Amino acid sequence: MSATFDATEFRRTLGHLPTGVTVITTTGEDGRPVGMACNSFVSVSLQPPLVMFCAGNTSSTLVDLRRSGTFCVNILGEDQGPLCKQFSMKDVDRFASVSWTASPAGPQLTDALAWVSCSIETEQAAGDHVILIAAVTGLRVNPDEPDPLVFHRGRLGSFTETGEKPLGPGGVLPRQGNRIVALAPAAAHRLVG
Hints:
Shape: globular
Strand order of the largest sheet: 3-2-6-9-10-5-4
Structural class: mainly beta
Number of helices: 3
Largest sheet: 7 strands, antiparallel
Number of strands: 12
Radius of gyration: 17 Å
């Protein structure tokens, strides 16, 4: 079955689904920090704790991820849009002027919303990307609990709660779900994986 739409329409349509924004980091072969912006990060399983994200087949960071076998997911806060943009650029030193601390899984970016340490379990080819599934080996949340950075329709913004009750027992969604609102205008750009 062939698609009746092009890549631009595909990206535009799926852009209506808001996503969180992360920077995936690891350590390069020469000990240098490497990383990439990523909005495809999701939870896969609670038992055992597994997560996944997608990286482009041509991503230079993918080479280092495969070599190291570990990575740190830096979940970005609402004021870290410039950091996201820096890590989505090609052929630049993405860590220039970036504050971070070393960890066994990969660099932890200062002031992120949360950090998830991971060990790669498997990968699966998927079109022009690779799906990486990883075991979670450590977790840490920023005690200041900043609001998350959100990517929606090619823009970065923030999340505002609607006042709805949180999810019920077992993660059941409420009948009238929360909405992403107050997406601050920002220059449209594509996150690089």
